[in-house]
């Protein structure tokens, strides 16, 4: 049954998987064999450039809101020109059925003159792809990773609390969402590319483009200088080291002990209980082989360059 939300018809029954793939649909699954990353080997990374713009890519539910708040404070205390793309990574039109006038994360950045953009030294927040094209200087990206299943439950809890789509069925699974976000930003995630004034259906959510192993390695080689694992760097100490390296004259040290947008434990426990089976665990492993290998590498071997 459809209901009108802000003049847009929203049919809940057609939105079975507002995030992730439908595990009942074999076409949603990656075809075997899945080649995992050789995570004991060094990962490729971008070449160091002390004049590059630092871009902190906010992968959802990896502590990004806390890091953004700490970066905002650090920028203000040191009078460093920073740009926050905030939660603008959505087109005009609809956001999970509710109308929004917010534009995507880089539109405000595109609206600046080239001279204004050249003054920016740090960018952070949710964003679609293309930030590198907006600066004359190189752009070095940084991201935080999290154990894929835990990240998924946190996102599931967030969506359940903050959207109108109702409970997410147990058969909805992610597919290498961190690797996808690292390479493509929000372009192919959660169906954010939706024509204005149109209602979302499952068709939009299916338009994922998870990278292959070679595509991910090429993405890291071209763009990323540091990856962190939230499990081993909960206060983002490596971010502080990177900022000291890039901004040696900054007088205020970076410190981060903020906790924002943390999902309630009871809610995640309920979501987990509804999905506790060997079949679910096996499907999560198969759907997230790339994310798991990438996260294990960063957790066990540290970030890309010191």
In short:
With 306 residues, the chain is an alpha/beta fold. It has helices at residues 64-78, 107-110, 114-118, 148-162, 177-184, 202-205, 213-223, 237-246, 265-273, 278-287, 289-301, and strands at residues 2-5, 8-11, 21-22, 53-57, 82-86, 93-95, 98-100, 122-125, 139-145, 172-173, 224-229.
Descriptive overview:
This protein has about 300 residues and is α/β, with parallel strands linked by helices. The chain has a single domain, classed as Rossmann fold, CATH 3.40.50. It contains eleven helices and eleven strands. The strands form four sheets. A five-stranded parallel sheet has the order 5-8-4-9-11. A hairpin with a 2-residue loop joins strand 1 (about 1-5) and strand 2. It starts with a strand and ends in a 5-residue tail after the last helix.
Instruction: Indicate the percent of residues in helices.
Output: 25-40%
Find the CATH topology: Rossmann fold
How far apart are the first and last residues' alpha carbons, in Å? Answer: 55 Å
Mean pLDDT: 75
Strand order of the largest sheet: 5-8-4-9-11
**Backbone shape:** globular
Order of helices and strands: EEEEHEEEHHEEHEHHHEHHHH
Q: CATH architecture, please?
A: 3-Layer(aba) Sandwich
CATH class assignment: Alpha Beta
- The stretches of 5 or more residues where confidence is low (pLDDT under 50) are 1-15, 30-35, 87-103, 190-207
Number of strands: 11
What is the C-alpha radius of gyration, as a whole number of Å?
A: 19 Å
What composes the largest sheet? 5 strands, parallel
- The SS-based structural class is alpha/beta
Enumerate how many helices there are, as a single number: 11
User: How many structural domains are formed by the residues?
Assistant: 1
What share of the residues does DSSP label as strand, in percent?
Answer: 5-15%
């Amino acid at each position: 049954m459809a209901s009108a939300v802000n003049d847009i018809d929203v049919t809940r029954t057609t939105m079975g998987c507002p995030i992730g793939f439908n595990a009942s649909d074999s076409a949603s699954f990656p075809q075997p064999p899945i080649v995992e990353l050789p995570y004991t080997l060094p990962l490729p990374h971008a070449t160091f450039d002390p004049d590059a713009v630092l871009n902190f890519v906010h992968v959802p539910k990896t502590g990004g809101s806390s890091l953004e708040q700490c970066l905002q404070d650090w920028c203000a205390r040191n009078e460093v020109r920073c740009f926050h793309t905030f939660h603008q990574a959505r087109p005009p039109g609809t956001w999970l059925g509710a109308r929004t006038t917010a534009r995507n994360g880089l539109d405000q950045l595109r609206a600046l003159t080239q001279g204004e953009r050249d003054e920016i030294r740090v960018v952070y927040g949710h964003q679609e792809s293309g930030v590198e094209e907006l600066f004359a200087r190189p752009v070095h990206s940084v991201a935080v990773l999290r154990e894929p299943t835990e990240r998924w439950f946190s996102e599931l809890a967030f969506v359940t609390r903050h959207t109108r789509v109702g409970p997410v069925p147990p058969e909805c699974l992610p597919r290498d969402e961190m690797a996808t976000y690292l390479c493509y930003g929000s372009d192919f995630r959660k169906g954010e590319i939706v024509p204005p004034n149109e209602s979302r259906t499952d068709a939009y959510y299916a338009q994922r483009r998870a990278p292959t192993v070679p595509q991910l390695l090429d993405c890291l080689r071209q763009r990323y200088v540091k990856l962190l694992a939230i499990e081993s760097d909960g206060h983002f100490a490596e971010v502080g080291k990177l900022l000291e390296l890039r901004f040696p004259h900054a007088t205020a040290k970076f410190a981060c002990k903020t906790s924002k947008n943390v999902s309630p434990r009871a809610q995640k426990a309920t979501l987990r209980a509804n999905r506790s089976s060997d079949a679910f665990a096996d499907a999560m492993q198969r759907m997230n082989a790339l994310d798991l290998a990438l996260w294990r590498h960063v957790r066990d071997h540290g970030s890309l360059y010191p």
